[in-house]
């Protein structure tokens, strides 16, 4: 029995701005001039993918957008969170993903008295649209409700989307989300943590659009496909 | 875990007779039953209802009969939530829910007398066949009672008997003849919320509404097991209505999947 | 005309027919079902997620926890459900075979839980489980240095072979050597051996396993990419 030469195939690149689905461990490019961005790492001469995702080259940086994975909290992200517990001087908030967030009393609009009943401000189970103001090295996440866009969410409903697909839902310069909002006549608020709040006339059709993005985020021509689906579904309703 | 907001939406819609996935209150998701999915089992089945996925397997061994039924075979049913089934399922000793699930599924089959246990006698007072039904929940998206009940009866009907060799050992490689089963007991869970009756709840709906009756019924419309579960009370009328709905539904399911 | 020396007509270095499918358990963060001949395993991943019990938490990285379990009806003589020593050992061994591939330090204070269920057993359950777990981890989006690929090689009836069946494992001179590795670097993350064999033969058997792993790696990649090709 001959020992075959053991080779590992490199992912072929077709152009500088090439995008391609890669698996963890794939060598994307051999070069000392390129920097590994998110989802990639350097090993000797090679830039290698860390995740199952779409590899993109942007100037001197190669990054890989994962096709799945938990939310990685970033400072200044807007997130939709659910109050899970009321503590002495803060609320614990579930923002999806492995790390719980904290909303301190100091980050709430208005004045809260010393012995106030905190549940009157935010009760367990309530949803908030909040901004992340800090992510510490030990993953302690601090939220604020003092931001202008922050608010309590009390009607409509929330749909989940893989966090890495949120940019696809928003689209270039907000094109995708604006299209969905206008055609379905719905309000939509998107949390970077993959929670999407919606309320309006055709909530179920908006929901369908979000599910399509979840399933097909990696395929080209998605905007057109969603546009077609919206037309079809809205015509059905009439 | 389901968001409180989502649970509120679900309940508001139920009162209006609507559901978030556009189904009617008494409408099932797609049910698929596949038998013979595990070669080493004497009988096996995989059932999916929407995205709920459950598998069941039947194994047989010889055993001594119970003293009060010396000429009857024995059956035992167990249900387990596999950790993969839901984020809240953990590895460890059986929880209450799993034990209740197994017992309710067992009751529907046992009390219906669909298995002729006397035919499972090998030698009176000495040796009988023992039938093991093991049910595993692989993906939890609600309505586990119905799915596990279907998987159990489908696996039993798929089962072939192992051969007993001359020296008394069981040969699992060579199977011959079906288990002595007549009829198809079906378990249906019916939920109740503010006077509305709901079938086949998914995981989110199941968290929003827990009050239900679980009914095991037979080909001739008789009921052989009944249990109320959940935190709210039910009126007699509600129970009577739900009972009828369960029996009617079991007839539809039986006709569609077991004829 | 050469007659196959194996009962299932395979060549000595031929792997059983393989099937791999991604995304079979919808609620899990990642999942895969893998078949090698008559051995079938389903693996599902939850994580990174909050770790319970809290005392298992590590401040600097995620904790990988793997559960290997055979379903009661996966084997000829029914296996009683519940804890058993072999499954506990395999859980730990598999954890150690996957850990080197994961960037655990990116998720301090969390757990990554893998549940591997053997639905049908015909030898090679631990290697099939590792292949399934590796796919499930990639599907879950967990950052990895490489996929992990695994196969058992060994000896039966005086011949050195790849991917033995139960019958071959029971041969009088049987040697069973399961191996797992990270394909790009060739680093071995699992190595176990049962049987009596010379150190030189061990090296030969490991070589056979390595070649087998590279073939399995191609199938794993294909299964992952297939899920996302339009």
Short structural description:
The complex is a heterotrimer of chains A (238), B (259) and C (230). Helices cover 19% and strands 33% of the residues of chain A.
Give the class of chain C from helix and strand content and strand pairing. alpha+beta
Helix percent of chain B reads 25-40%
Text of the CATH class of chain C: Alpha Beta
- Quaternary class: heterotrimer
Largest interface: A-C, 36 and 42 residues
How large is the radius of gyration of chain C?
18 Å
What does this structure look like?
The complex is a heterotrimer of chains A (238), B (259) and C (230). Chain A is of the alpha+beta class and 238 residues long. Chain A contains 4 helices and 16 strands. Chain A has helices at 166-170, 175-184, 203-216, 222-237, and strands at 19-22, 27-30, 35-36, 40-43, 46-49, 53-58, 61-66, 78-86, 90-94, 101-104, 127-135, 141-144, 151-153, 157-160, 186-190, 195-200. In chain A, helix 2 (175-184) packs parallel to helix 4 (222-237) and helix 3 (203-216) packs antiparallel against helix 4. Chain A starts with 18 loop residues before the first strand and ends with a helix. Chain B is an alpha+beta fold. Chain B has one domain: GHMP Kinase, N-terminal domain (Ribosomal Protein S5, domain 2). In chain B, 27% of the residues lie in helices and 34% in strands. In chain B, the strands form 3 sheets. In chain B, strands 1, 2, 3, 4, 5 and 6 form a 6-stranded mixed β-sheet that branches. In chain B, a hairpin with a 3-residue loop joins strand 5 and strand 6 (127-139). The relative contact order of chain C is 0.18. In chain C, the strands form 2 sheets. Chain C has a 5-stranded mixed β-sheet. A 4-stranded antiparallel β-sheet of chain C has the order 7-6-8-9, with helices on both faces. The chains are: A alpha+beta (238), B alpha+beta (259), C alpha+beta (230). Chains in contact: A-B, A-C, B-C. Chain A binds chain C through residues 1, 3-4, 6-8, 21, 23-27, 39, 41, 43, 48, 50-53, 66-70, 98-100, 138-139, 162, 164, 216, 218-220, and chain C through 12-13, 29-30, 47-50, 59, 101, 103, 107-110, 138-147, 160, 182-184, 186, 207-208, 210-211, 214, 220-221, 224-225, 228-230.
């Amino acid at each position: 029995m001959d020992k075959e030469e053991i080779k590992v195939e490199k992912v072929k690149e077709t152009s500088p701005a090439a995008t391609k689905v890669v698996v963890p461990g794939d060598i994307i490019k051999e070069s000392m001039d390129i920097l590994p961005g998110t989802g990639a790492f350097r090993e000797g001469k090679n830039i290698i993918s860390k995740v199952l995702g779409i590899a993109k080259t942007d100037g001197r940086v190669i990054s890989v957008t994962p096709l799945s994975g938990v939310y990685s909290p970033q400072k200044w992200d807007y997130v939709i969170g659910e109050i899970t517990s009321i503590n002495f001087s803060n609320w614990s908030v579930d923002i999806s993903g492995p790390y719980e967030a904290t909303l301190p009393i100091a980050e709430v609009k208005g004045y809260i008295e010393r012995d106030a009943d905190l549940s009157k401000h935010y009760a367990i189970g309530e949803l908030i649209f909040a901004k992340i103001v800090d992510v510490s090295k030990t993953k302690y996440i601090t939220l604020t409700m003092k931001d202008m866009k922050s608010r309590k969410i009390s009607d409509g409903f929330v749909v989940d989307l893989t966090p890495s697909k949120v940019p696809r839902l928003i689209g270039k310069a907000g094109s995708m989300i604006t299209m969905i909002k206008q055609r379905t006549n719905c309000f939509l608020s998107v949390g970077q943590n993959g929670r999407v709040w919606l309320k309006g006339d055709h909530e179920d059709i908006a929901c369908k659009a979000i599910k399509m993005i979840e399933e097909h985020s990696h395929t080209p021509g998605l905007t057109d496909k969603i546009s077609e689906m919206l037309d079809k579904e809205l015509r059905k309703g009439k | 875990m389901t968001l409180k907001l989502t649970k509120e939406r679900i309940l508001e819609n139920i009162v209006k007779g609507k559901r978030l996935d556009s189904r009617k209150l008494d409408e099932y998701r797609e049910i698929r039953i596949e038998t013979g999915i595990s070669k080493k089992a004497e009988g096996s089945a995989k059932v999916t209802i929407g995205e709920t996925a459950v598998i069941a397997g039947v194994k047989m061994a010889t055993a001594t009969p119970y003293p009060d039924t010396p000429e009857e075979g024995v059956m035992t049913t167990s249900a387990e939530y596999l950790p993969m089934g839901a984020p809240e399922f953990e590895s460890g000793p059986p929880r209450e829910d799993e034990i209740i699930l197994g017992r309710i599924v067992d009751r529907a089959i046992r009390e219906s007398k669909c298995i002729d246990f006397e035919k499972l006698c090998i030698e009176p007072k000495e040796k009988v066949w023992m039938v093991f039904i093991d049910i595993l929940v692989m993906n939890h998206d609600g309505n586990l009672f119905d799915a596990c009940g279907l998987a159990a009866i489908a696996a039993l009907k798929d089962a072939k008997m192992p051969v007993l060799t001359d020296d008394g050992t069981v040969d699992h490689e060579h199977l011959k003849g079906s288990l002595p089963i007549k009829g198809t007991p079906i378990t249906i869970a019916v939920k109740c919320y503010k006077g509305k009756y709901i079938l086949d709840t998914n995981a989110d709906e199941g968290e929003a509404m827990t009050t239900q009756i679980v009914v095991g019924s037979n080909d001739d419309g008789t009921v052989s097991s009944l249990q109320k579960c959940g935190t709210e009370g039910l009126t007699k009328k509600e129970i009577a209505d739900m009972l009828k709905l369960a029996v009617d539904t079991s007839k539809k399911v039986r006709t569609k999947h077991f004829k | 005309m050469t007659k196959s020396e194996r009962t299932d007509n395979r060549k000595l270095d031929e792997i059983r027919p393989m099937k791999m499918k991604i995304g079979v358990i919808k609620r899990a963060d990642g999942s895969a079902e893998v078949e090698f001949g008559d051995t079938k395993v389903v693996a599902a991943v939850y994580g990174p997620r909050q770790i319970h019990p809290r005392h298992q938490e590590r401040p600097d990285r995620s904790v990988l926890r793997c559960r290997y379990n055979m379903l009661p009806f996966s084997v000829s003589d029914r296996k009683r459900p519940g804890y058993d020593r072999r499954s506990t050992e395999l859980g730990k061994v598999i954890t150690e075979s996957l850990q080197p591939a994961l960037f655990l330090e990116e998720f301090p204070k969390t757990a990554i839980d893998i549940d591997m269920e053997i639905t049908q057993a015909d030898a090679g359950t631990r290697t099939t489980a590792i292949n399934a777990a590796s796919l499930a981890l990639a599907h879950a989006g967990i950052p990895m240095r490489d996929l992990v690929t695994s196969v058992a090689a060994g000896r039966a009836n005086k011949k050195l072979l790849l991917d033995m069946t139960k019958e071959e494992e029971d041969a009088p001179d049987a040697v069973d050597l399961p191996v797992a590795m990270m394909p790009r670097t060739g680093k071995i993350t699992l190595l176990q051996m049962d049987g009596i064999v010379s150190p030189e033969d061990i090296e030969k058997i490991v070589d056979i396993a390595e070649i087998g792993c590279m073939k399995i790696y191609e199938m794993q990649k294909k299964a992952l990419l297939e899920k996302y090709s339009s």
